[in-house]
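Table 4 source record.
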Amino acid sequence: MSTVLAEPATAARPASRRTRLLPPVLVYVGLLVAVVSSLGSPLVPTIATDYGVSLGSAQWTLTVTLLVGALAAPVIGRLGDGPWRRTVLLTVLAVVVAGSVLAALPGPFALLLLGRAGQGTGLALLPLAMSVARDHLPAEQARRTLATLSVTAVVGVGLGYPITGLIAEHLDFHAAFWLAAVLGAGAVLAVALVVPGSSDRGREPFDGLGAVLLGLGVGGLVLTISEGETWGWASPRLVGTAVAALVFLAACTWHELRTTHPLVDLRLMRHRTVLTANVTGALAGVGMYMLMSMVIRFVQTPESASGLGASVVVSGLVLLPMSAASFGASRLVTWLSRWVDATRMLPLGALLFAAALLVFATSRSHLWEILVVMALAGLAIGSSFSVLPRLIVRAVPGTATSSALALNQVLRTVGFSIGSALSATILTAHTIAPSPLPTPRGYTVGAVVAIALCLLTAVVSVVLGSRREPGPAPVLDADQELAVEEDTDAALTGAVAFDPEDVRPAARGVN
């Protein structure tokens, strides 16, 4: 996804109507991403009840969206980096609308999963929106729009969940998917009328074989984890699926390291700093989604089953402290990084997350304790995820920044998918028939497993980060690097891929 950047063509001309409308349209697309991504977790218990499926099966309405998002990000990013970017935007939005309609229609559970898979492609839209802002807005306006898009992604996590829960509580839960369809249709119309084309951009061959191998490998890996309890951990079917997934991932690695135009440039993993950021991001992503999935499910569990018996709306509101704390921590880390090396923030974030999980494992009988857990988790996310892009940007050449961040995005999103599936597997293993609800011990075991992952993350970040290799770095002056750090921190706190190269034309225009 490497891109040759140029000064925005509109920097020296008065703003046209299209230029004035472009920022709100792009922010609208960012809002759509936030809404679509928030439709999963709060509805899991409701979906399980309405469709008569287990909670583990209902969890796939979240897992499949994350999985498709992980696979779509490099594919859509590569396609959108060429002359078809506007077409790619419209096509992906159309797929999101179609997926939303399928999920909203009454029908079998498989139809809902198919719709959620279509919605998952929307998780790759925000980087394209940021790229449009970079190329087609005047310098100062581009910076403001990029910052707004970043904040929209962060705030959307906390606001989208309770809004979705409110709809589900007072209407049929399908209404939430109809809302996504209406918002998506509005986005299609707005993008068609306002977003300019990119026919002047160069084109590169698309790595179709890499896309197929990556999809089969990652899909098989998540399927192995999610179906382990149902199929049996030693069953031939599960072992065969796991072996096949590893073979496909190995073949994908071999292919990507040897092709001229790889879908994901794995060669960048050879740099120790990049490897640290990618491994840490993936492991932290697993722990983060394990906690989110367990907390939302536990808060809605009836008091008779040792839960809190809260509504879907309340279960969404408990995420607000996480969003607020992660945003605040990212700002604090940006300030501290002027004196403290960024690599030292990674183990700190992992240990803070372990502390949040420890509180959840030992003290979860009151709602205020859950709010404390999520606030601690937010501090952890802001302290760790916010430094990942800075590490990558400083370690790789400017021409490889987009490809490096795309790889980090894929690994973190795969971590989210595995964390979601792993939490469902653990809770399903501690569900005793005929009760459809997991025992309290299931949540404790899940928290302990996540704590172990966080401690492993801390150790890995210390070991890998202790010996950094000298390597090429982007040539940025002080103001440009500050712009990169400020905007990438806000974007990555919300677990959204963001290309720091997007702000460089803006920084040059301002200076």
